[in-house]
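Following up on my earlier thread - several people asked me to post the actual chain instead of describing it. Fair enough. Here it is, all 283 residues.
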Amino acid sequence: MRKILLLLIIISLLFTSCEIINPKEDIPSYIQIDTQKVIINDIVKEGNNNHGISDAWIYIDDKYQGNYEPPVKFPVLTSGSHKITLIAGIKTNGISSTREEYPFYREYIIDTVLKESSVLKINPEYTYLNNIHFWIEDFQDSDIKISPQQGMNSDTVIVREANPDIAGDYYGAIYVNSNNPIFNAATNVETDPIYYFQANRRMFLEMEYKNNQHFWVGLYADGIPYSIELINPSNTWKTIYIDLTSTIKSHPANAYMLFFNTEWDGNNQGTIFLNNIKLVNYE
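Reply from S.P.:
Thanks for posting it. Predicted structure:
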């Protein structure tokens, strides 16, 4: 009898030690994200739905899981019923090292069931928050809101051109060359004042661009220019999110004007195409 008990104890210890050496592995479930979209509310004039969202920030039951650049499939060590939250991520000022959650899009939330070894596909559709103020120049009207202002040295202006790739669409074009080397233009503070910035809240410029010529984006604060971002050449259309917050906090003013400027770099004809310019802040 003693021998049998001793044998059972030895077998039990062997199984226990095996479990310690080779513990049971958790089986992950997977989340797959292929695309991300922005849905526009045409009633409140939010512009078009082109975007430059780069990442998806993932939360499960409000616990941060990581941020991923779609298309992507990644494992999560959880299963069962959960709330999954996706937040649109951007490269602030177009810089990969300054990724953050974009503050003006609403979270995309689903309640779902995660199953071990199974893949859950989520393609989020984001919308703007309700309490957002927009100033938009999309060049769809002939009255262009950005032009050389009094006292600015500029040899040329923005011209409105038809988009050859999208019927009924227009963009703004800037050309600089040896005859017209300097471009300086801004919003008109008298007819279109940008006075609604609030220094204690986030403020962004969203903009599409395509260019072979460097150019600056900045703000006039009560007539004093502050350059914010130098835009490098791109041979494809890109969307950038430029953070204006720190400039406005550092330079409080009664009125601001958004400006663009460039000086011909001497290489062929310089071209800058702009579209869907949005100044975005909280009401």
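The radius of gyration is 27 Å. That should answer part of your original question.
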